Amino acid sequence: MTGQMETLEFQAEARQLLQLMVHSIYSDKNVFLRELVSNASDALDKLRLESYADKDLDVDTSDLHIQLATDADARTLTITDNGIGMSRDEVVNLIGTIAKSGTAELLAKLKESKDRQEAELIGQFGVGFYSAFMVADKVTVLTRRAGQQEGTRWESSGEATYTVETVDDAPQGTSVTLHLKPADEEDRLFDYTDVGTLRSLVQRYSDFISHPIRMEVERTKDGETVRETETLNSMKALWARPRGEVTDAEYNEFYKHISHDWVDPLETIRLSAEGTFEYQALLFLPSRAPYDLFTRDAKRGVQLYVKRVFIMDDCESLMPEYLRFVKGVVDAQDLSLNVSREILQQDRQISLMRRRLAKKVLSTVKSLLDNDTEKYRTFWSEFGTAVKEGLVTDPDNRDAILGIASFDSTHDKAEQTTLRAYLDRMPEGQEHIYYMTGRSRAVVENSPHMEAFAAKGWEVLILTDAVDEMWVESAGEYEGRKFQSIAKGEVDLDSGTETGDKQDEEFSGLLGWLGEKLSDHVKQVRLSSRLTTSPACIVGDEHDITPELARMYRAMGQ
Ligand code: ADP
Ligand code: MG
């Protein structure tokens, strides 16, 4: 039964994002193919996984594949998969709306941004399906969900509305037909109906997709034209190929495929383990933080494969939360294809693997620090704040994290310092690593607590990230030197003589009077050697929480 056609409106955010696509100034429009192929590949994986989980689902998973078909006269390109498909509701909800958190913020940023940044921001967001509208002025989706009888036809020209109708002749799976825009004079005239073009795009962007991407091609054989099916991709898993055989360009494309980033990664990490629990990992440090690094539901970027077969995205068991920005793939040989998140959480081998992966990431950053300062700086300015969370949550790696950390300091306004460099500069007589936390560099620098240290020429770390409050208290020491707040407790500035008993006596009247007047607000009033020009300052007890931390707890509702 073919139902009535309904016209629906895109959700407001979706409409805005679509507009950006339609008028995209992003020069590399070719990536639309990567996006649609990756959706098709996801749909094939989902069908396979669902057929494991649901034995009653009567589907054929013996020839999961993606098919490209073109019509040069009609100027269409169709990408078809025999995967999970979508129900009518799913089409409306998945294609008509954007459920991703942070969409509103992203769109607000896009409004302010300059043209060039626009593409970058969109890239970080991962536009997915909508990228079809960069090259098409109309898109038709025909889909039927596995296990359902009725199919759905969806169509839109990328403006405010789309149509949906129920159809009875849709094969299981999804086909997306792009009605290509007229070739633009200014554009680098790509003909997306040409086999050669598509072959090279697939090889460039989607070669490693683990399902075959097929296309009917015409060949001349013995003077006769024959049609035959060609598989355009090699389907080789990058992480399973010898390192020397894979080019940087291939790694970079793979990174973009799994991360939805549009720029190359900062660093590629490979790791493999043999023996009782075998696995290979191919990980990437991105060159920029994603827009949602600090939102509550920020995802972790590592995918789990079992024996080359995709199992799950965002596998939280593979990477600790403070390294959630690391992207990549882990392929384990000895897990069941049925493995679930719950099982992974309890698996001892998995937790060993996770520790090893985390250590490898940290040691990679260490080698950037030692060998490629510029890359290291980029890394730390993008991800340092997240990595520092590990000082609280991953005590095992505390020293490794402190070893790759950089901090603002009074030593140099422009450049951060490592703790190693801080220790190397420490003058004779200085015992501790001094720091002060605060909301901004200016606040800390102008604090009266700073005066005596400035006068003495003792360097003070300036810690302004909210997370600093959380770790620095419990960090204890680094290479035998204690972290000491300059705003708390007794600070020993070898001042015994100045604040000796004689002086205390001399000022006892004043101190007593002040103590009485301020008794509701302070515990004690005493002479201090901290100050050189300010008359007074407030000092916390050794174990008090700082005003910043108190503010943070309040903000968190505690
Ligand atoms: P993403 O892939 O990042 O989720 P997309 O915009 O690419 O975002 O796709 C949105 C959603 O639409 C997908 O998550 C998926 O649920 C659905 N979808 C897109 N293409 C297909 C397809 N070929 N088969 C089944 N579902 C699809
Ligand atoms: Mg997608």
Automatic annotation (TrEMBL):
Function: Molecular chaperone. Has ATPase activity.
Cell location: Cytoplasm
Entry-linked InterPro entries: HATPase_C_sf, HATPase_dom, HSP90_C, Hsp90_fam, Hsp90_N, Ribosomal_Su5_D2-typ_SF
UniProt record similarity statement: Belongs to the heat shock protein 90 family.
Residue ranges, annotated region (A): 1-341
Assigned GO CC terms: cytoplasm
Zinc recorded as keyword: no
Assembly: Homodimer.
Protein name (database record): Chaperone protein HtpG
GO molecular function: ATP binding; ATP hydrolysis activity; ATP-dependent protein folding chaperone; unfolded protein binding
Gene that this sequence comes from: htpG
